[in-house]
Amino acid sequence: MKNSARILSGAQIAEAVKREVAEEIKILDYRLGLTVVRVGEDAASAVYVGNKVKTSAELGIRSEHIHLPAKTSQAELLRVVDELNARADVDGILVQLPLPKQIDENFVLERLNPEKDVDGFHPVNVGRLSQGQTALAPCTPAGVIEILKRSGIEIAGKHAVIIGRSNIVGKPMAMLLLQENATVTICHSRTVNLTEITSQADILVAAIGRPGFVRGEHIKTGATVVDVGINNVSDADFARELFDETELEKRLATIEKRGSTLVGDVNPKEAKMKAANFTPVPGGVGLLTVAMLMKNTVQAAKMRRKTD
Ligand code: NAD
């Protein structure tokens, strides 16, 4: 079997999206504002928020980062959300997840003004998306659609299989693919005969949270495989199962230096042998998420300010 997959790099596509967003921002006669609220000291959240604030600045969006202590009560957080909902200069509000245990995430997300919900997690936006109406769509699955479209991969009429049914990735991914006229199947932890289903997919999206879970046997020859997963692998032997000679050495060096290397939900060595197109981790879907957040902020501002 030859190693043939085209690697769908997210870098150029993310740059193109950001460039287009920056152009749109330049011709607005107001300054866009995005506020990111972070509660507590989750290390990964700090990195994500830092990226969002930095990219906002690069594109000319005024961004604000509100960092609240880990012991913040739900009532206190809701007060902050209410204030941001009321502020005319705030176009987008993003409450970084996860939130500390004492706070009910759903309650907080429902309190956001849906017009400012740039993460697309509010039930009103989820409902609009599922009805095929204009909606703020969750950034990661929206980024997957950008990658597919801008790489010239046909979606209409194709069988798209998603592994994962989370509110953040799996379910909105299904809705977006359906909107693009794919025939959509959602698989999850209780799916029986997973391999039988995934191996029929023209487009296979993995959003599971388990490193290298999707193997060659799950993939139809010639499929497009989109890897949403972000996992850390610290075991060198496991890394040897995942990477071919083109990247193994580099990965082992990273494990040696940093203690782990970033791996998706798909075994890249096997995916490259079976798939026609494959998104790498890192450097694939992950790069689109922040770009799509910027795009959503512009969309939110345009929709809300039109009706003000
Ligand atoms: P989640 O834990 O909420 O959901 C995982 C899903 O996988 C569940 O629906 C579950 O049913 C399914 N699953 C688990 N084990 C399974 C199995 N054995 N067989 C079939 N299905 C199984 O995770 P999530 O928030 O949807 O994230 C999924 C992955 O995507 C994670 O690795 C996460 O880090 C990554 N992620 C990446 C980005 C990005 O920007 N690239 C954004 C969000 C999430």
TrEMBL record:
Pathway: One-carbon metabolism; tetrahydrofolate interconversion
Signal peptide coordinates: none
Residue intervals of the Tetrahydrofolate dehydrogenase/cyclohydrolase catalytic domain: 8-119
GO molecular function, one term: methenyltetrahydrofolate cyclohydrolase activity
Matches recorded under InterPro entries: Aminoacid_DH-like_N_sf (IPR046346), NAD(P)-bd_dom_sf (IPR036291), THF_DH/CycHdrlase (IPR000672), THF_DH/CycHdrlase_cat_dom (IPR020630), THF_DH/CycHdrlase_NAD-bd_dom (IPR020631)
Residues that hold NADP(+) according to the record: G164, R165, S166, I230
Pfam families: THF_DHG_CYH (PF00763), THF_DHG_CYH_C (PF02882)
One GO term (biological process): tetrahydrofolate interconversion
Keywords recorded for this protein, A-Z: Amino-acid biosynthesis, Histidine biosynthesis, Hydrolase, Methionine biosynthesis, Multifunctional enzyme, NADP, One-carbon metabolism, Oxidoreductase, Purine biosynthesis
EC number: 1.5.1.5, 3.5.4.9
GO cellular component, one term: cytosol
Span of domain Tetrahydrofolate dehydrogenase/cyclohydrolase NAD(P)-binding: 138-304
Catalytic activity entry: (6R)-5,10-methylene-5,6,7,8-tetrahydrofolate + NADP(+) = (6R)-5,10-methenyltetrahydrofolate + NADPH; (6R)-5,10-methenyltetrahydrofolate + H2O = (6R)-10-formyltetrahydrofolate + H(+)
Function: Catalyzes the oxidation of 5,10-methylenetetrahydrofolate to 5,10-methenyltetrahydrofolate and then the hydrolysis of 5,10-methenyltetrahydrofolate to 10-formyltetrahydrofolate.
PANTHER family: C-1-TETRAHYDROFOLATE SYNTHASE, CYTOPLASMIC, C-1-TETRAHYDROFOLATE SYNTHASE, CYTOPLASMIC-RELATED
Assembly information from the UniProt record: Homodimer.
Family: Belongs to the tetrahydrofolate dehydrogenase/cyclohydrolase family.
Protein name, as recorded: Bifunctional protein FolD
Origin species: uncultured Pyrinomonadaceae bacterium
Name of the gene: folD
